[in-house]
Structure formats: C-alpha cells, structure tokens
Task: inverse folding
C-alpha cells in the first residue's frame, strides 16, 4: 500500500500479463529506466522521464500502462507482480481533487503523440484497417485447436519449419495481416513460473486460411531447446493451445490497392508476407500497386513456402529469392538482391504510394538500409530524407529479432 504524500506522480508501468519479455523496451529506452529480472520487465520511476520512446516499438502494448500514485512502486514490488495493480484512490488521500484527472490527461496526450509517430516513430499506414489488440491475455486466454501442422521445409533438410493452423471455434479472434499472437507453452520455467507467451506473426490473411473461417496460420521454426517452438512443432491435429493477443498496431498492410509494397525477409520472417500476399490475392487481385518479395534463406530446401510461392503469379508478386549456402554458389543476401534491382527500387522509392516492410533477422537491417541508400544514390535520391518521411507517414516498417 502506498503511503499518502501531498505530491502525486504518474508512474510508467509494464503489464506482466501481456509482456512477452522481448527486451525491445530495455533496448530502446534512452535513459536506461527499463530493466528486468527472471520474472518481469519493469520501469524505474526515479529514472523514467516519460519520453515515450519505448511506446511504439513494443510489439504487444504491454508498455502502455500508467498509474497515478502518491508513492512510486519500487522495482522489487514490480518484479513480484503477476498482474498490474489497479489504480488506487489517491486523490482524496493526497487532498488534491482534480490532480489525478490532470495527470491522466497529460499521460493520454503523451501516448497519443507517441502513437502518432511524432519524432519519426513507427505508425500504421494511413489506409490500414483498425486492428483489435490485447483481446486475450494471461488472465483471459483464448483456447485454439490445431487443425493443421505441415512441414514447409524439405524432409532431407535439418531445418524444420512448420505451417501450423489454429482454429478459434466460436471465440472471436479478429486479426489483420502483420499482427502477431502469443502462444503459452504448458508447464513452468526454471523458476517454477508459468512460461511467458512467445510471439508469432500471423501468416494468413484476415478472415482465415480459407475465406470466412475463424482460424489463422503460424510459421514456426523448431529451435534447438526452444520451449515453445518444439511444443508447437510437435502438436498433432486436435490439440488445444492457449493463446494471447492479437498484438501489433503499426506493422499493418495498407488497404489501398494502389500501394506498392516492398517486403524483405529472412527465414520465418516471411510469415507476415504470406498474409500480405494472400490478402492481395483474395481481396484485390487486379490491384495496380506492385508487391515485391526479397526473401533470403540458406538453400531453396529451407525457404519456407518455396513450393506454394512458385505458383504465385509474377503479376501479383515479384519474387527475388536469395540463397546464402548453396554449395559452389556465391553467398547472396537480401541486400545483394536489392542492389541488383536498384533501378526498379529507386523508381518505387520515389513514389509516395510505396511502403517498405522488413521482417526477420536483426542483422539484416543495416545491410538493407545501405542497399536502399545505394539504390537512391545511383538515382540521385536522398535516402537520408526519404526514409524518415516514409517512417513518419507509416510507410517504413521493421520487425526484426
Ligand atoms: P535463418 O534461417 O537463420 O536465416 C535466413 C537467411 O538469413 C540465411 O540465408 C542467413 O544467411 C541470412 N542472414 C543471416 N544474417 C544476415 C544478415 N546480416 N543480413 C542478411 N541476411 C542474413 O533465419 P530464421 O532462423 O528463420 O530467422 C528468422 C528470424 O525471423 C528470427 O530472428 C525470428 O525470430 C524472426 N521472426 C520470426 C517470425 C515468426 O512468426 N516465426 C516473425 C517475425 C520474425 P547465413 O547463411 O549467413 O546464415
């Protein structure tokens, strides 16, 4: 219980029920106010300056929480939480009627600005549909049934990537292309705590794998000792899975059929782009906007959706596959392939209807950025001013891990 004082403060907090412990907030915070232990990610009230830099990058929105308090919650208190405490009745105790409302208004304004992307932070494309977020959390889980679990990579390959279909039956679970869900593996971690939800991008279009079905697909790579990936990859049809989400309010597809979309991914980072491609194919097959996919994998046998992608017509999707480990072949990465398509890329980057999405390994971010800069330089375009403009208008999106 907080001891009343006369001064009220607004404290930034992270919801432990929604947080997936991805470390993005800690990496983003410019003043090192975010820290963690084996249980929770927390904000140190004595350091946090409410700059809001951490708000947009958080994939789940767990970071969007504030309480007006008379005494800040300590790190120790926050580490012990299983759920956020409710807003306390502090106004009367502090003898400051109206002060709570004033602080809450201030917080709302700051959050709104952060979401609008002031300062070049990511925002959703203007034409994107409005997403539903945080419908389910640890305290209120959705339970899905596995209705499909197919291997996507060649049987002879060591890489086991799977297409897993989860059906939600009569529970509402609306998702948009580009959103993610959390999956809670059964059992406990090394501290005896329930596993935190692991985040997976939705790999199907809104409306389900087949039109008007209440299901969605995930692209899951079996990781050595991976708790959730092994759990999911081994699930037979009919299994029940606990799910949180949906999450994500910015890495969304523009609904404008004239939008050009340049998609760049490695490995399972292709998941959202399957959703994007299927959405275009289903809802606007004759859209005038171009879809381009730059997709990096070690070998064709390890490229998720290799077979199905071959059948997507070039008119709908321009495909640029790159392989880094084909014997006797030079290593080719997505950034190399972008360079070999320089002229086309520069033309698209000149167009205000072009959107860029990058998803997959964190390491590729800088290489892709340099490739775009090279393409622009060759066409006398100033990438250093184009990129921030694209970000601020919701046309440049990065989701890497
Ligand atoms: P991977 O198989 O390890 O790598 C795919 C390709 O990326 C390989 O050809 C690799 O080349 C290449 N690569 C490595 N470093 C690179 C760099 N700096 N620049 C460009 N290419 C580079 O990929 P993965 O294991 O599937 O990993 C995909 C990533 O996507 C993971 O980090 C995952 O967390 C993330 N992700 C997954 C989902 C999902 O829903 N499952 C969604 C979003 C993001 P080398 O031969 O040099 O290794």
Result:
């Amino acid at each position: 219980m907080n001891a009343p004082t006369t001064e009220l403060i607004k404290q930034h907090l992270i919801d432990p029920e929604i947080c997936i412990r991805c470390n993005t907030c800690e990496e983003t915070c410019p003043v090192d106010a975010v820290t963690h232990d084996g249980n929770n990610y927390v904000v140190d009230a004595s350091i946090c300056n409410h700059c809001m830099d951490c708000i947009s990058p958080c994939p789940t929105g767990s970071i969007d929480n504030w309480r007006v308090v008379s005494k800040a919650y300590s790190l120790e208190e926050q580490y012990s939480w299983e759920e956020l405490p409710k807003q306390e009745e502090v106004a009367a105790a502090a003898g400051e009627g109206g002060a709570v409302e004033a602080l809450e208004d201030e917080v709302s304004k700051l959050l709104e600005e952060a979401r609008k992307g002031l300062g070049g932070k990511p925002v959703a494309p203007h034409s994107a549909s409005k997403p539903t977020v945080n419908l389910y959390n640890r305290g209120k889980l959705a339970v899905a049934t596995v209705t499909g679990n197919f291997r996507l990579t060649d049987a002879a390959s060591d890489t086991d990537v799977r297409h897993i279909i989860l059906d939600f039956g009569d529970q509402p679970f609306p998702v948009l292309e580009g959103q993610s869900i959390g999956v809670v593996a059964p059992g406990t971690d090394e501290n005896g705590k329930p596993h935190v939800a692991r985040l997976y991008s939705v790999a199907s279009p809104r409306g389900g794998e087949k039109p008007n079905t209440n299901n969605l697909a995930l692209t899951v790579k079996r990781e050595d000792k991976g708790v959730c990936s092994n759990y999911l990859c081994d699930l037979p049809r009919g299994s029940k899975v606990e799910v949180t989400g949906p999450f994500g309010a910015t890495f969304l597809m523009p609904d404008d059929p004239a939008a050009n979309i340049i998609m760049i991914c490695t490995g399972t980072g292709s998941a959202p782009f399957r959703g994007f491609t299927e959405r275009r194919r289903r809802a606007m097959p004759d859209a005038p906007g171009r879809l381009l996919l730059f997709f990096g994998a070690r070998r064709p046998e390890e490229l998720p959706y290799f077979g199905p992608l071959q059948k997507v017509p070039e008119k709908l999707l321009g495909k640029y596959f790159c392989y880094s480990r084909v014997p006797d072949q030079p290593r080719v990465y997505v950034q190399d392939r972008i360079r070999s398509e320089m002229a086309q890329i520069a033309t698209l980057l000149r167009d205000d209807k072009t959107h860029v999405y990058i998803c997959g390994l964190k390491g590729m971010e800088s290489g892709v950025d340099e490739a775009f800069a090279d393409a622009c330089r060759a066409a006398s375009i100033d990438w250093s001013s184009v990129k921030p403009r694209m970000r601020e208008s919701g046309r440049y999106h990065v989701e890497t891990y």
